[in-house]
Description:
Elements: H1 7-25, H2 36-58, H3 63-92, H4 95-109, H5 113-120, H6 137-159, H7 164-188, H8 190-195, H9 201-216, H10 221-241, H11 254-266, H12 271-277, H13 280-287, H14 289-306, H15 312-339, H16 344-365, H17 376-384, H18 393-398, H19 406-420, H20 424-434, E1 466-471, H21 473-485, E2 490-495, H22 512-526, E3 531-535, H23 546-553, E4 558-562, H24 572-577, H25 585-590, H26 596-610, E5 614-616, H27 618-623, E6 631-632, E7 635-636, H28 646-659, H29 661-667, E8 673-674
Parallel strand pairs: 1-2, 1-3, 3-4, 4-5, 5-8
Antiparallel strand pairs: 6-7
Amino acid sequence: xxxxxxxxxxxxxxxxxxxxxxxxxxxxxxxxxxxxxxxxxxxxxxxxxxxxxxxxxxxxxxxxxxxxxxxxxxxxxxxxxxxxxxxxxxxxxxxxxxxxxxxxxxxxxxxxxxxxxxxxxxxxxxxxxxxxxxxxxxxxxxxxxxxxxxxxxxxxxxxxxxxxxxxxxxxxxxxxxxxxxxxxxxxxxxxxxxxxxxxxxxxxxxxxxxxxxxxxxxxxxxxxxxxxxxxxxxxxxxxxxxxxxxxxxxxxxxxxxxxxxxxxxxxxxxxxxxxxxxxxxxxxxxxxxxxxxxxxxxxxxxxxxxxxxxxxxxxxxxxxxxxxxxxxxxxxxxxxxxxxxxxxxxxxxxxxxxxxxxxxxxxxxxxxxxxxxxxxxxxxxxxxxxxxxxxxxxxxxxxxxxxxxxxxxxxxxxxxxxxxxxxxxxxxxxxxxxxxxxxxxxxxxxxxxxxxxxxxxxxxxxxxxxxxxxxxxxxxxxxxxxxxxxxxxxxxxxxxxxxxxxxxxxxxxxxxxxxxxxxxxxxxxxxxxxxxxxxxxxxxxxxxxxxxxxxxxxxxxxxxxxxxxxxxxxxxxxxxxxxxxxxxxxxxxxxxxxxxxxxxxxxxxxxxxxxxxxxxxxxxxxxxxxxxxxxxxxxxxxxxxxxxxxxxxxxxxxxxxxxxxxxxxxxxxxxxxxxxxxx
Length: 679
């Protein structure tokens, strides 16, 4: 094995970066494109292990030289991207978002982004598209690997005198331990498994195993072809068949990682694939892949900050700009920095990145530097925002209203400046949201074996009605409102984040959502329940719930579906922040409103009646037949893209008290539709 340059590896890098970029820009086109990161991990392990072992065998390895090369390779363009994001964010990000950017800049500069995102991860965490440096979690894991790996190889090779065979066995043990731990943790805590270095190190170690195998055995001819083509097939399958909800990394990560390792071992001696992967266009993309990876996500983040639901052409233009910046960065930043021979260069680069990290940390600690006037955001957003699509007569008829009266308009004028700053009022609004959107709201059959929040029908006083509430985080909001509206009824929640009450989606009952959904279905077999309410952020394929309805009918006298929520394409507090006259407030909100939920609501109503169950029109109850309220006074009804705040839950509870859906459903001999007709 030599350290000779292999153009096919840059071609493989091109495949990895293109997969990631397509997934981030158009996830429906390549649902498993995020495995491009895993391809990068294996390539890094392959190259770094080969480089270190070769240098050790030649007697020229030194830690100083190794880390100097890493710094000159990684730090320059990273510093440019972080500084550019900070500068652009100065003009377009409100205080809370700028504080988040600063926090994540500091984490990126310290290569601990994965741990920071792990601490933030969870169902109600900031949406991924609202994290401008989210992609740097993988760079942090690579750097953490670089801290450990040279020490391990030096110890194994120089202290323990291991040859390639013994070293191969050591790496196999390390990889197997990391893989098994990752599979186990993915089942119980997928967020932690995704970000921990210990669940990812096997991927980089696998690259080391691949390079040792090429040193120990000569892989040529049919074996090389078999490995290379098998590897390519595995990569294609991973990109097309895996999706973000499949439980990753876990055992599914074997698909892209084994595929990459096989390609690395076989492609060099497989004429057809070596030629294809060494194509000039692919190699060029591969050479710029690191810079392209760094630029593309912040560019997409800022686009989504400024434009609601950007058109594909605008997304492609943004990616084109990212690639142009990557090419410029490769020639003007990356390449010159690598060629600098002065021993002072790594020190200067280290100090520069530390200063940039400090700038970010300072912005984070100082409330996003809220003295800034963010004048460029609205003007730039209006410049880029495409015209809304024309609507049909039917859509106009179904259109909800968000229009304001004079009093509401005056209240909004006072509220907007507070939302644009990281003010005490904004903090209070967040607390109002967190009060009903937290893990306690998910204390359900999925977490406690006895039933929702430790409560079962056995806790209900004799003669007291029992209602089972099954679903996701939106069900938690409904449950909160129901308990306020009906203090004399025992509500038993089987609820957890993301758990749509459709058993077909959770074939394994031991998963978190499997425990919730299958647990509710098992609960009614052994406990008397008067009414089951199924509620969720419903998908378009809601009809898949039909077999579950049939199951519940066998054990429960009354069943009701609760319709979809008001949902939006961006956080409601940000929609309000971005409002500026003379645009009509209703037109401004409509740009971000998920109109599909109105037609979904009508379709679900018809479906429920076809199934012989009742239907509760949540949108109608929330809007009360008039303009849908997003705020009241200085309090928001909805904070994020659709979850109610405590104020919003109280508003819905008052509607439930007046419309009284539970009594209407329990009294009626036939299925009923409950909408805004106060009883």
